[in-house]
Amino acid sequence: MATEIKINPLDLSEDTGIGILLNITSNTGKIFNVSYTTLDQAKTNFMNLLLTNEGERIMQPEFGCNLKKILFEQITPSTKSRLESTIRNKTSYWLPYIEILELNIDIEPDLNRINFEIVISLKDNKFDTATITFTVNLQ
Q: Is pTM, for the whole model, over 0.85?
């Protein structure tokens, strides 16, 4: 059975910038660090969603995952499921073109640390994936 893969036409042009990556400053002498693929830009958009708290974005007060609020509360058995549902619900609402393939949250209560590993792809192209890993130290 054949599988249809949709590729954004902008991805085929190496000289067409799609957006600005989250690491804004460029090491190559350019003013901004530009993304040239839709997956790179989707990864940046996803990271922006994770790092933004509700109320921070003007004219979009519900944008963001509010992870700071959840992370700095007492760690309970429901913390992991609450984080997972928040990330999945906010992503499906604000970034419907992104699919979360894997969402691994490892809570280390003795060290006050939470490790995240998230694998995403574009809904039209599940063959190309991006992995986002970060750790939050709650000290």
A: no
| pLDDT confidence band for 100 (50 / 70 / 90) | very high
Higher pLDDT, 129 or 15: 129
Q: Buried b vs exposed e over 59-73: b needs ≥16 C-beta within 10 Å?
A: eeeebbbebeeeeee
Which H/E stretch holds residue 44? helix 38-51
Q: Tokens in use for 4?
A: 């249809």
Of the candidates 115, 91, 93, the residue with the CA atom closest to the CA atom of residue 42: 91
Cβ neighbors of 123 (< 8 A, separation 6 or more) are: 96, 97, 98, 99
What pLDDT does residue 116 have? 92
